[in-house]
C-alpha cells in the first residue's frame, strides 16, 4: 500500500479562498479584520513564520501590524505593548510569537492578551471553552489538523486516535478536539513505556514529539492515517518531520508530508480565527472601517 498524501498546501488554499470571501463580505459591511503579531528577538525560524503571517493576512485582505521587539525587552514593556493592542479597535487578533526569551513568563504574556482577541486560542479562558465545546478560538495547529482530516473524508467517530506529545499548543488540544468528534483518544509522551505498542493500535496517529523521523513503519498499523506535526532538521540539515516518511508511507493509508502538510494549515487557521474575531466584533457593533 502506498499512502494517499494529505496536502496542507492544497487544503489550506481551499480554506484561504473561503476566508477571502468572508473578509470581502465583512469589508463591504464596513469592517476590516486586523491582525497584530508581536515578535521578540531574532530567531530565524520565528522571523520566517511572522513574515508569512504578515504576507498571508495581507493576501486575505486584512490589516496587518507587526511589532518587532528586541530580545532584551522587559516583561513589563512587552505587557504594555499587548495592552495597547487590547485597546486598539482596529485589531481583532493578537498573537505573540513563541517561544519567548527565557526571562519572560510565557504564561503571563498569554494571559495578558484579551480572550476576545486571542486568535492563537492559548488563553486559559479559551482553552476552557474549547474543552467544554463552546464557540471559541481553537489552537491553530490542532484545528488545522481537524480540517485536514474532515476535508480528506477521514471518519473520526469511533476511531482510536493516538497522540504522541502533550504540549499545551499541540498535543493536549489535539486529543480534546478528536475526543469531541467521538474518537477514543490515547496520549503518549516521553515517559510512556512501550510507546510503539500504543502507536501501533492507532487508526489515526498524530506525531508531535519533536524528534526527527522518530515514528518508523514499526510504529504504524497497516492502513492507519498518520499526521506529522514535527519540524526538525535531519543529519543533512534538511527539513523533516517526526515521521520517517519513506517507510511509513508504505503502511499508512494516508499521510501528511513535511514540508507542505500541517505547517501551512497553522497560518491558515490563524486567518480563520482572525476573521471569526472580526465577525463577532461586527455582530456586537464594535467594528468599523472608520476606526482604522
Ligand atoms: N504564537 C504562536 N507561536 C508558535 C506557533 C503558533 O501557532 N502560535 N506555532 C509554531 C510556529 N508556527 C507558527 O507560528 C509555524 C510553524 C511552521 C509553519 C510552516 O508553514 N512550515 C512549513 C515549513 C517552513 C520552513 O520551510 O521552514 C511546512 O511545514 O511546510 C507555519 C507556522 C511555534 N510558534
TrEMBL record:
Sequence intervals crossing the membrane: none
Record-annotated Tetrahydrofolate dehydrogenase/cyclohydrolase catalytic domain positions: 6-120
Catalytic activity: (6R)-5,10-methylene-5,6,7,8-tetrahydrofolate + NADP(+) = (6R)-5,10-methenyltetrahydrofolate + NADPH; (6R)-5,10-methenyltetrahydrofolate + H2O = (6R)-10-formyltetrahydrofolate + H(+)
EC number: 1.5.1.5, 3.5.4.9
Keywords: Amino-acid biosynthesis, Histidine biosynthesis, Hydrolase, Methionine biosynthesis, Multifunctional enzyme, NADP, One-carbon metabolism, Oxidoreductase, Purine biosynthesis
Binding positions (NADP(+)): 165-167
Highest taxon in the source lineage: Bacteria
Signal sequence annotation: none
Molecular-function annotations in GO: methenyltetrahydrofolate cyclohydrolase activity; methylenetetrahydrofolate dehydrogenase (NADP+) activity
Domain Tetrahydrofolate dehydrogenase/cyclohydrolase NAD(P)-binding: 139-279
Record note on quaternary structure: Homodimer.
Family the entry assigns: Belongs to the tetrahydrofolate dehydrogenase/cyclohydrolase family.
Name of the protein: Bifunctional protein FolD
Protein source organism: Sporosarcina quadrami
Encoding gene per record: folD
